[in-house]
């Protein structure tokens, strides 16, 4: 049996960590959770994490340590008002995808991409029902 207990850190590869932090914090309104240097010399790096306010899970923004191209990742986040969030981001000048889903078991959602081509799917959070 596994000892893994939760999904805690998703990772995106980015070309420029400072630019990525600006997009996620200034444009999307997320929080900077961690920004620390590690290692020395040729192995020195920087660990950067961002997250939506109140989120337990974080998104690490890493440069490609293996020389691969940035981008190509995808992650889903939940919003209590997908339509309102889409409108807010569109008004802020973010290129947003069309609304999709919202019928049957598929939640309403749209996508937005960062400058490196990583995709964030904004998905309608399930309704909170009071416990009986």
UniProtKB/TrEMBL annotation:
The residues covered by the VOC domain are 6-125
> What SUPFAM superfamilies has UniProt attached to this entry?
Glyoxalase/Bleomycin resistance protein/Dihydroxybiphenyl dioxygenase
Pfam families to which the protein is assigned, alphabetical: Glyoxalase (PF00903)
The name under which this protein is listed is: Glyoxalase
